[in-house]
Structures are given as C-alpha cells and as structure tokens.
Specification:
The chain is an alpha/beta fold. The chain has 15 helices and ten strands. The strands form two sheets. The chain has an eight-stranded parallel beta barrel, surrounded by nine helices. A two-stranded parallel ribbon has the order 9-10. Helix 2 runs parallel beside helix 3, helix 12 crosses helix 13 and helix 14 crosses helix 15. It is elongated and about 85 Å long. Bound molecules: 3-methyl-2-oxobutanoic acid and zinc ion. One of its GO terms (biological process) is L-leucine biosynthetic process.
Length: 385
C-alpha cells in the first residue's frame, strides 16, 4: 500500500532473475555436506520451482563436485548450471570439464583480501580477472564475475575492475556483500552507482551477518539490480545468505514483479532441504516456518476466521503452507468453537464454558493445548471419556 508512494523513486527492473546458490554457498554452511545424489535431487526441485541459475558447486574442490555438476547438467533442466571458479586455469578447467554452461568466477578485491589473503596488487587482480573472463568466453560459456568483498573495496577500483571485465565480455557482474556489512541505504546507493557506470546486468549476493541479507537484496533491486543470489532457508557461510523464499515472496507481493517462480513449491522445498542438510528451521522463520501461518491469540483467531487477510499478508496456499489455529493461554472462544465444530462436537453453553476454562487453565500452566487435548477435554465433559 504505502510502497506505491515511493515506487516512482525506485529504479525497479521489469523482472529479477534468481541465481540459487544452495548447492554451493549453502553447502558452505558449517556442518553441511551433500552427496552427489542429494545435490541432484535438490537441483531437480529447484528447477521445478523455476530458478534461473543453479550454482551446483565448486568443481575444483573435489571429484564429487565435478560429478554432481556433470550429472545435474545431463538432466537437461531449464536452469543454467553454474560452477564456481577462481580466476585460475585449474579452477576454470575443472568447471569447463564438468560441462557447466555458466561459470561464476571471483577474486577478492578489498584491501584486506589484496594484502592479507592474496598478497597481490590491484593490477594483478584486475588482469587475472580479465584473463579469466576471456578464457570462459573463448569456451562459449556464460561468464559471471564477482569482486569478492565488493562492499569493502574502494569505489574507484571496484568500478575499474567491473569496467574491465565488462570490456572483456562478461555477461553479468555480481556484487557480493561478503561479510554482510551493508545496510539497505548504502547497498541501494552502491548499486545505483554501478548501474550508472555499467551496461551489463548487475547481480547481488548478500550475506546475513547482521540479519540484513534479504533487506539488502531488496534495496539492490530497488536500485535496479537484475539478479539476486539466494539460498533455500537462507543457508550459507556463517549467518547465511539471503533466503530465497523471503526474497521471492517480497519481490512478487511487495513490488509486484512478474517472476517465473512456482511459489506454491516453497514450503516443500524448504522442508526437503532441511531434511537433507539437517539444518532445522526455527518455527518463526518467515514464509516457511511452522508458525508462519499459525494463530493463537483470541483476537487474531477471531479476525482470521472472519477474513484471513486481517492477520495474514499472503495466503498460506501461495507458498504451499497450511493455516493452523493453535490453542493456549491466549485462545479465545471463537477458536475453540471452530475446532469443536470441525470435530462435530456439540456443546451447550455450560459445557462449553467448562471446556474454555480448562483450556485457559492449561495455558496458564505454560502448556500448549493440542487438538487431541481439546477433544479429550470435551469428551470428558460430555461424559464420554
Ligand atoms: O560471499 C562471497 O563473496 C562469495 C563469493 C564466492 C562470491 O560467496
Ligand atoms: Zn557468499
């Protein structure tokens, strides 16, 4: 609603591509490692969901990574299959040998990366990047280039290196907020700056160290970013990456962008990835968490039963979720009546009051009242238990 007041100040693209990196950055989640077969199964579901690019892994890092990328490619999916590679011949050849049709090459550009990690000059880094992009393009493969730690790199140098790879024929430049230090306003400013400088599509890759990965991704889109890197359930290094389900639902419902994502598959994919990786979602995780469409407070339940939109910004069906009415300390009479009706249990006023009081008493003891508890209470009051 209020977004309409500010939309004309934004530089929104017509649509946004989703570059999924669950199988690469997502696999860098501490404690997570996927087998070739698990990667294949997730890739199939990501493709069904409709993502544009699947970053299948980092081929040079193991033979399993090469095999996974190759096998995923053989499946003939609609999405491009991408391999990550440093601008090193060995890395690039490993990705090429894995047969991917898209290579994401990256190198650190910030003073910290130049001085302490790479021990390379600005000129060396720039020339390696240009060579890598030319090498990828000479093999007829789509090239995306990331200046790792972009958001702590001097702006002049960042522009210089992105201009150089653009001249070398790169297809997309990606702006990684590698340690999640941006806030939406600064991210928006940076993407506007780069947009005014470059002609190639711009992508962003936001980490969640300060819990701002989704907000920073959206601020980038407001500035004209054409693509967002994201992972299912926000998996990724440290605090993770921008959560795909949150980014996608915000882009579709808040900005009204037309995207080719079958959003009703989001909950299923989130649960699938959670089972495979062993990373459980907190119940209050936006969009896909167990409580995302659960209502307990009497006032809320009353509202939702009368008209769901009162306390739901989107329908649960849109993301493959289900609405849940939860009974507990904050429950009101409407919720209990609705549940009893669902079970075909008919009570007079006196009986109903007894059930209501028992539910409240259990809630006051800090207990959650399950549907089975409610039935048992009602049956005992009816003298059936
Ligand atoms: O966070 C990051 O900078 C990355 C790069 C490989 C792009 O994941
Ligand atoms: Zn990353």
């Amino acid at each position: 609603m209020y977004i309409e007041k500010v939309k004309n100040e934004m530089n929104l693209p017509e649509t946004v591509k989703i570059f999924d990196t669950t199988l690469r950055d997502g696999e860098q989640t501490p404690g997570v490692a996927m087998t070739v077969d698990e990667k294949i199964r997730i890739a199939k579901k990501l493709d069904e969901l409709g993502v544009n690019v699947i970053e299948a892994g980092f081929p040079v890092s193991s033979s399993g990574e090469v095999e996974a990328a190759g096998e995923i490619l053989k499946m003939g999916l609609n999405a491009h299959i991408c391999g990550l590679a440093r601008p090193l011949k060995g890395d690039l050849d490993a990705a090429i040998d894995a047969d991917v049709d898209y290579i994401h090459t990256f190198i650190g550009t910030s003073p910290l990366h130049r001085e302490f990690k790479l021990k390379m000059s600005k000129e060396e880094i720039l020339s390696k990047s240009v060579d890598a992009v030319e090498y990828i393009k000479d093999h007829g493969i789509i090239a995306e280039f990331s200046a790792e730690d972009s958001t702590r790199t001097e702006l002049d140098y960042l522009k210089e290196i992105y201009n150089a790879v653009e001249d070398a024929g790169v297809d997309c430049i990606n702006v990684p907020d590698t340690v999640g230090v941006m806030v939406p306003t600064s991210m928006n400013w940076l993407i506007r700056e780069l947009k005014s400088e470059l002609k190639v599509p711009i992508s962003v890759h936001c980490h969640n160290d300060f819990g701002l990965a989704v907000a920073n991704s959206l601020a980038s889109v407001e500035a004209g970013a054409d693509q967002v890197h994201a992972t299912i359930n926000g998996l990724g290094e440290r605090a993770g990456n921008a959560s795909l389900e949150e980014v996608v639902m915000a882009l579709i419902t808040q900005y009204d962008l037309k995207m080719n994502i079958k959003t009703e598959g989001l909950v299923n994919l989130s649960e699938f990835v959670s089972r495979i990786t062993g990373v459980k979602m907190p119940p209050n995780k936006a969009i896909v968490g167990e409580n995302a469409f659960a209502h307990e407070a009497g006032i809320h339940v009353h509202g939702v039963l009368a008209k769901a939109e009162t306390y739901e910004p989107i329908t649960p069906e849109m993301v493959g979720h289900t609405r849940r009415i939860v009974l507990g300390k904050h429950t009101g009479a409407n919720a209990i009546k609705a549940k009893l009706k669902e079970y075909g249990i008919d009570l007079d006023k006196n009986q109903f009051d007894k059930v209501f009081n028992q539910v409240k008493a259990l809630g006051d003891k800090g207990k959650c009242v399950t549907d089975a508890d409610l039935r048992a209470i009602a049956e005992s009051i009816l003298g059936r238990a």
